[in-house]
Write a structure and sequence with these properties.
heterodimer; A: alpha/beta; five-stranded parallel β-sheet; B: three-stranded antiparallel β-sheet
Chain lengths: 121, 275
C-alpha cells in the first residue's frame, strides 16, 4: 500500500483529505506544519505528500526545499494543496520540485484526478 | 412536471436530435429545463411547455432540446485516447499526409475541453512534426455550449479536472475568478453548430473524429444513423474515437475496432460499397 503524508495546519482539511485518499488506496500519516512533516520524512519517506502552503513554523515551500535536499528526498511525489492560486506561485512551487498542484477548494474528483496526473494511481 | 409535459420533451428530443431522454429522471429534466424557463422569461417550466404546445416556436423547441443534450466533460478525459492520439495517430498522419492538411473533428465538443486538449497536444508536439498542417474543428448541438467553449474561460474546478498543472501554467492565464486559455490555442479551433443525426454531407472530410459518449445518449435507430454519418465524414484511412465502453460493433458495418486500442475504430474498407 502506498503511503501519503498529509501536511496541513487545519485538522478539518487533514480529515477530509485523509478520507478521500484512503478511499483511493493510500495509507495516511498527518503533520500540522513543515517541521513536523520533515521529521516524518526523516523517519520514513512517504510515497506521496499532500502539502499546504501557509502553515506556522515552516511553510510548505520551505518544507519542499528542505525535503528535496534530504537523502531519498527526491523520491516522494509532492502535490501542493493550497488557496494560493497565482500563476507565479504555482511556477515557484514547480521550480522547487512540486509534481502537481491543487487549488483549494478541492473535492474527491480533483484529488483523484491530480494524483493520477502525478502518476500516483 | 406533468407526465404529458415530460412525454412532450422526450419526444421532441428524440425527433430533433435523436436524443434518448429517460422520462423517469424527473429531477434531471427539471434541473435542466428550469434555467431555460428562467432565461426565456417564463414563470415556470409548466408555463414554458404550455407556450411550446401553443406556438410550436422553433427557437424555443431547440433551446429545450439543446439543454437536454449537454453533458459534463473534462480535459484529457480518460487520458489513454489522448496519449494514443499524440504518440501514434499524429506522427503516422503527419508522415502519410506529408504537408497536406490533417483535419481533426471534435464532434459534440460540449464546453470545449476535448478539442482544447487536442490543441494543446498539437501545440506541444509541433516541433516534432515540421511541415505538418493541422486543422481543428469542433461542433456541438448546443449554441450555449459553443459560446462557452469559444470563450476559453473555465472555472477553477474545471481546470483541475484532467489538466496537468504544467499544461495550465503553459497555456492559461488567470482572469479574475476564471482561467483563460491562451488566444494562440483558442484560435486553432474552428466552430460550428452541427446536429450529428441530421444530414452531414456538407460537414466535410476528416482524418480523425472524436465522438465520445454520444452514441449511448441516442435512441437506438439514431445510433446507426450517427455511425454511418461519421463513416461518410471520415477519410478512408482515418480514425474514429468512441467513448470507452461504447462500441460500433453490432450496430453498423461501417467501422471495425482497432485491436488493442480501446475506443478506437477504423473505417471498414467495404463500407463505401455498402453506402
Amino acid at each position: 500500500m502506498k503511503t501519503c503524508l498529509v501536511v496541513d495546519d487545519s485538522r478539518v482539511i487533514r480529515k477530509v483529505a485523509r478520507r478521500i485518499l484512503e478511499d483511493i488506496g493510500f495509507e495516511i500519516a498527518e503533520a500540522s506544519d513543515g517541521m513536523e512533516a520533515l521529521a516524518w520524512c526523516r523517519a520514513a519517506m512517504p510515497d506521496a505528500v499532500l502539502l499546504d502552503w501557509n502553515m506556522p513554523m515552516m511553510t510548505g515551500i520551505e518544507f519542499l526545499r528542505h525535503l528535496r535536499l534530504e537523502p531519498g528526498g527526491d523520491k516522494p511525489t509532492v502535490v501542493f494543496c493550497t488557496v494560493e492560486n497565482d500563476i507565479e506561485r504555482i511556477r515557484e512551487a514547480l521550480d522547487c520540485g512540486a509534481n502537481e498542484y491543487i487549488m483549494k477548494p478541492f473535492d474527491g474528483d480533483i484529488i483523484a484526478s491530480k494524483f493520477a496526473e502525478a502518476g500516483l494511481v | 412536471m406533468r407526465p404529458e409535459d415530460i412525454d412532450l420533451v422526450v419526444q421532441l428530443c428524440a425527433a430533433r436530435a435523436g436524443l434518448l431522454v429517460d422520462p423517469g429522471k424527473t429531477y434531471l429534466l427539471e434541473s435542466r429545463l428550469g434555467p431555460v424557463a428562467r432565461r426565456e422569461n417564463f414563470g415556470s417550466i409548466d408555463d414554458m411547455i404550455a407556450a411550446l404546445r401553443a406556438k410550436r416556436e422553433d427557437r424555443l423547441a431547440w433551446a429545450i432540446v439543446e439543454c437536454m443534450a449537454s453533458s459534463e466533460t473534462a480535459f484529457f478525459r480518460d487520458r489513454t485516447p489522448f496519449n494514443l492520439f499524440r504518440d501514434e495517430i499524429l506522427p503516422t498522419l503527419a508522415r502519410l499526409r506529408d504537408g497536406e492538411p490533417i483535419r481533426i473533428w471534435s464532434a459534440a465538443c460540449g464546453s470545449g475541453q476535448e478539442v482544447y486538449s487536442l490543441a494543446m497536444i498539437i501545440e506541444d508536439q509541433r516541433a516534432l512534426m515540421p511541415g505538418a498542417k493541422l486543422e481543428l474543428f469542433a461542433s456541438d448541438l448546443s449554441e450555449r455550449a459553443l459560446e462557452k467553449a469559444q470563450s476559453g474561460l473555465y472555472t477553477q474546478f474545471e481546470i483541475q479536472r484532467g489538466l496537468p498543472i504544467r499544461q495550465l501554467v503553459r497555456h492559461f492565464e488567470k482572469a479574475d475568478e476564471m482561467w483563460a486559455l491562451a488566444p494562440r490555442i483558442r484560435q486553432m479551433v474552428r466552430w460550428r453548430r452541427i446536429n450529428l443525426v441530421a444530414d452531414l454531407s456538407a460537414a466535410g472530410r476528416f482524418d480523425v473524429i472524436f465522438c465520445r459518449y454520444v452514441l449511448g445518449s441516442l435512441v437506438e435507430p439514431m445510433r446507426v444513423r450517427l455511425l454511418e454519418n461519421l463513416a461518410r465524414a471520415l477519410s478512408p484511412d482515418g480514425f474514429l474515437f468512441l467513448g470507452l465502453g461504447e462500441t460500433a460493433t453490432g450496430l453498423s458495418e461501417a467501422f471495425q475496432p482497432v485491436s488493442g486500442r480501446p475506443g478506437l475504430y477504423a473505417r471498414n474498407p467495404s463500407f463505401r460499397a455498402a453506402a
